[in-house]
Design brief:
The protein has seven helices and ten strands. By secondary structure, the chain is of the alpha/beta class. It has a single domain, classed as Alpha/Beta hydrolase fold, catalytic domain (Rossmann fold, 3-Layer(aba) Sandwich). The protein has an eight-stranded mixed beta sheet, with helices on both faces. A two-stranded antiparallel sheet has the order 7-8. Strand 1 and strand 2 form a beta hairpin. The mean pLDDT is 95.
Length: 238
């Protein structure tokens, strides 16, 4: 694993790199963590990255979004557009022409934002239990987020800036125009965001979307079935 950073002082972005370990590498994978998590959160699923690098021959890149992990907390820029721009800037810095995006929770929404704005850069998208929209975050969410400071490496001012700037944005309208293959891993238990049929059906507007229900809560990648479904989907891509 190789840590990298780029960007000017005060707006630096951290990402981690695992090189492919096969002689003929395939399209790289970009891992986008959930709302308050960092790039290192993908280490919680120890079988996923080694199978991508060794068995599928893919270099893997994981980003820490602004204010998370080792990335800086800028004064402003916590809406969908700025997070999408950070993903694009990371691809450019790493000289990646095209990637397959794997996102969990809100990271999947940011990945969808990238695919919608720059479809030439995204070969496929794996959605880990997220609806195709950015919700409006309020003070109740902020209070809950601050209770996670001891568990997740985010800047203490991050929740407040997200509440101040992030507006609800519906990306469902962009789905019919996306031709890329999309795998939606749908949790069906407990705290899953796609537990209801109506929430999961929102992804059906994408012409090449496959929705896979799992006996899981929101943490779909923590389940072996979720990881295997992701790996099978990726193995079908270039």
């Amino acid at each position: 694993m190789e840590p990298r950073r780029f960007g000017p002082a005060g707006r630096e972005i951290e990402y981690l790199v695992w090189p492919a370990t096969t002689p003929q590498p395939r399209a790289p994978v970009l891992l986008v963590p959930g709302m308050l998590a960092s790039a290192a959160s993908w280490l919680d699923y120890p079988a996923l990255v080694p199978r991508l690098t060794a068995e599928q021959g893919r270099a893997v890149f994981a980003i820490s979004l602004r204010g998370r992990g080792g990335s800086s907390l800028p004064e402003r820029g916590f809406d969908l557009a700025h997070h999408t721009q950070d993903l694009l800037a990371m691809l450019d810095h790493a000289h990646l022409e095209q990637v397959v995006v794997v996102g969990w929770s809100l990271g999947a929404v940011y990945g969808l934002g990238l695919a919608s704005a720059h479809p030439d850069r995204v070969l496929g998208l794996v959605v880990g239990d997220a609806a195709p929209c950015l919700p409006k975050f309020g003070e109740r969410w902020r209070a809950n987020a601050e209770t996670l400071r001891s568990e997740l490496p985010f800047h203490p001012e991050l929740p407040g800036r997200i509440v101040a700037e992030a507006e609800r944005e519906n990306l469902e309208t962009a789905l019919p125009g996306l031709s890329l293959p999309i795998l939606v891993l749908r949790g069906t238990l407990d705290d899953a965001l796609l537990k209801s049929d109506a929430a999961a059906a929102s992804w059906s507007a994408a012409p090449n979307a496959t929705i896979v229900p799992l006996a899981s809560g929101h943490e779909v990648f923590a389940e072996p079935e979720g990881q295997m479904a992701c790996l099978r989907f990726l193995d079908q891509l270039s």
